[in-house]
Amino acid sequence: MKNMLVWCLLALIPSVVFGQVRPDFFPEDVEPATLAVGCLCKPGVMNQSRGRGLELSFLYMFDSPLNAEGDTVLTSPVSELSLQNFTFKLRLPVVNKPGFKALFGVVYRPEHYDFSVIGAEYAPIFRHMNGRNLNSSGIETILTKSWSERFYTSSRLRVLYNGDYSGLIKAKSRYAIYSASLLLGFKKKPTREWGVGLTFNRSFRSTIALPFFLYNQTFDEHWGVEMLLPTLMNLRYNLSEKTVLFLGARYNSRSYALSVPATGGTYNLNHSEIRLTASVEHRIQNWVWLELDAGTQKHFSTDFEARGEGIESFRVEPGMSPYFKIGLFISPPDSYIK
């Protein structure tokens, strides 16, 4: 059974990594954090990755050329982009009772764009983005209820404000992305759980409803798999109680609302990518963990949707690019979780 799941995990990756167009089952503005409605509570399997109360991290994506998509021809040299992603997440337990948990969270995730080269095409938009933070800030609530030893439900409500505004947050409808997720979880034994869920997303670009599937299994004291389809597939190896290794793939999609004075119009930007990743989580104190993550990103097309007269929508195709990530997070010991 373990070998079959591992091979299925590996076989699914190439079909999407080497495609040029984002598959339809990878919608916009969905990533593992959108679907992962689990929290610091009893749902989960033995030895699985830790829940996070506080997370601080930094991700750097190395220079990637922004190539033409389809039949479009770009003048040489083409634009080249590197990206820095900062993440601050805080989840506070409001209720921590046996069988019921409620958390309130805040999110701040700016992306900083640096163009080492700006080509002739789309130069006003890229100059506007160059050296600028595109911000993603908001709040969320997470509720988890265990109805029996084998069945639980978990839900999340979240609102984010994504755009090129200045400051920590700007709560305007122009930037708003609303999401709601519900998971029905089934856990017949401590080593295996599965669940089905639905997430609803409404943003300035689109409105979607997406089913998703959760599967976590621990095979023995070392090996396990963690899946949150269609956004996350991980093979897990528990080296010790303090150190956990992961190998897998992760899908991310994020949108921003842009106002570009040089063109006199606004754009809705979306970028989507698959990350092939190898990572390690290591406990350095009872509550404090270190995360190191490295890999490569396969980018799907980056879409700039024009929202005004006299300007045109366009797409570019970023090349594959390596990245690394370093972070700290706080996770309470198992004795704290009721």
The assigned structural class equals mainly beta
- The number of strands is 17
Shape: globular
Please compute the radius of gyration using only Cα atoms. 20 Å
The largest sheet is:
17 strands, antiparallel
Helical proportion, percent range = under 10%
Query: How many domains make up the coordinates?
Result: 1
How many helical stretches?
3
Task: Report mean pLDDT, rounded to a whole number.
Answer: 86
Estimate the strand proportion: over 45%
How do the SSEs run, as a string of H and E? HHEEEEHEEEEEEEEEEEEE
State the end-to-end distance.
32 Å
Taking pLDDT < 50 over at least 5 consecutive residues as the criterion, the unreliable ranges are 13-23
Overview of the structural elements:
The protein has a 17-stranded antiparallel sheet that branches. The protein has helices at 2-17, 32-35, 123-129; strands at residues 54-68, 80-97, 100-108, 111-117, 132-146, 151-163, 176-189, 192-202, 207-218, 223-229, 232-238, 243-260, 265-283, 288-299, 302-306, 314-318, 321-330. The radius of gyration is 20 Å and the shape is globular. The protein has three helices and 17 strands. Strand 11 (232-238) and strand 12 form a beta hairpin. 8% of the residues lie in helices and 58% in strands. It has one domain. The model is unreliable at 13-23 (pLDDT under 50). The protein has 338 residues and is mainly beta.
